[in-house]
Every structure is written in structure tokens, then in C-alpha cells.
Amino acid sequence: MGVEPSLSNYQLSLKAYPETEALNLTFEDLVINEKFDLIIGIMSFTHIKNMDFALSKIKELMSKKGELAILALLNHIHPLCKLVLVNSYIQCRILYF
Questions:
Q1: Using only C-alpha atoms, what is the Rg of the chain?
Q2: In this predicted structure, what is the pLDDT of residue 8?
């Protein structure tokens, strides 16, 4: 399942990955009762307005052995590392380029 707030990117994802469910909304607006083993944030964490709310939501959406993977630009890693250290209750991997 993918969550994409940009309408044009959402439409591209439907064409490129027709077998994957995609939702055109923000992560903050997502309401779902499923649990996930892996949650991936791709170039998205710098756009989240309320990080405490987002991390609480991620924790709710994760299965007990779930993991968060963050893909970000190298110059955004320092704030993300601080975020993960402060919220160490979430298993997280930070990938950068």
C-alpha cells in the first residue's frame, strides 16, 4: 500500500504499479486498522508537520516486529538520527544518498 499526497505522483504510481494499492492523501490523514511489518518513508519525513503525531501513528501501524525504513538526502540525516534517538521505541533504519 502506498500513500501519496501529490495527485500527479499518485496517478503515476497507479500506472507504474497497477497491482499495488495506493491512496491519494497525506500520511497524517490516513485512517486504517491494518498492521504492517515494514513502513517506508521515501523523501517524506522533511514534509511532515507534526512529527510526534506521525511517530505515534507509525507505532500504531506497525506489527510487534515491525520496522521503519527512512530514505532521505544525506543533508537531512542529522535531524532524522535525532528523531530516531529520541523515539527509540521504533525499530528504524535510515538509508541515505
A1: 14
A2: 96
Query: DSSP letter at 46?
Result: G
User: Which class for 94: exposed (0-12), middle (13-18), buried (19 or more C-beta within 10 A)?
Assistant: middle
Q: Where are the alpha helices (DSSP H) in 6-87?
A: 7-16, 51-61, 77-86
Parts of the chain with a pLDDT under 50: 85
What amino acid occupies position 44?
Answer: S
The pLDDT value given to residue 80: 58
| Cβ atoms 67, 57 nearer than 8 A | no
Cell of residue 12, nine digits: 503515476
Interstrand relation of 22-23 and 62-72 (parallel, antiparallel or unpaired): unpaired
